[in-house]
Amino acid sequence: MGSLSNQDSATTHFQSLMEEVDGPLKSEYEIVHQGYPRETLVRFLKARDWNVARAHKMLIDSLKWRTQNDIKSILTRPIVPADLYRAVRDTQLVGLSGFTRLGRPVIAIGVGLSTYDKASVNYYVQSHIQMNEYRDRVVLPYATKKYGRYIGTCVKILDMTGLKLSALNQIKLLTTISTIDDLNYPEKTETYYIVNPPRIFSACWKVVNPLLQERTRRKIQVLHGCPTDELLKIMDYSSLPHFCRGESSPSSYDSDNVTSSDDCFSLDHNFHQQLYNYIKQQALLVDSPVVKQGSVHVTFPQPEPQEASIAQTIESEFHRLGDSKGGIMGMISSGLKVNGSWKSLF
What we know:
Blueprint: H1 4-18, H2 23-33, H3 37-47, H4 52-68, H5 82-91, E1 94-99, E2 105-110, H6 121-147, E3 154-159, H7 171-184, E4 189-195, H8 199-208, H9 214-217, E5 220-223, H10 228-231, H11 270-285, H12 305-324, H13 328-333
Parallel strand pairs: 2-3, 3-4, 4-5
Antiparallel strand pairs: 1-2
Helix pairs in contact: 1-3, 1-4, 2-3, 2-4, 3-4, 6-7, 8-12
């Protein structure tokens, strides 16, 4: 649906359908749109190529998923004890480093160095959803108010340092996380910047790129060499993730050159301190015992056929690369390991 008039008509039709929603779904819908229902409907329409019936089904299914899994209360469920949450943060490298000059949050992701090996799958999924909800309920409304205009998307910078070949034991978890995003948080990223890509990424990119939808391809920029100059076109130096600062662009998240307060992946970083304290405070407000341990169990949605096909293609390509180097076990014994999948990128 190319013309603006057709898109406006589709959005108006979609809006009239959503006016019929009531009960728990209406409550969840209000949490999702945060006072901007029309902009929210446009996101779901984009995700379904402006097909109103498909976008409507997608949003209703998402609201049902939220209701069934009590997503509205997930920001009252801190991961405790703090040592466990620190272990999650040390192995699921995600953080907010600042804002672009247009006010979009800058979210950094350490794709290559995330290991997801210090907690159960449920804790990593819980943490991911909590960051999504904090972004949508706190960070984006803050940016909207500060910059005086609606801001509903972010910029993501994906650090590929450390991305290596392995037995692909993280693809299932990362596919789960990405499927949750695809079906419940669509079109939340304005641009993906991929930095420090190793050779293995280039090999996979050749087979993944043609399989991506055109709207996704348009969002992705692969930056070779030092990415600082390119990123400084859209943000100030203070908003750059720690792995993009300086001419040498140090990338290892635990580099001696980076303190924990500068490392946006660290629990000691200001963003993660604010997020964790916010969740603990919300828990107290609803009389939820902070000391109660145990992860939130969320129903994992099934990936859509195209998403599953891309994941399978990536897995086959990794195995092919392993075979060409003397077998996958030979690659692992050489110290080559992959701690992510295509799903953590897109």
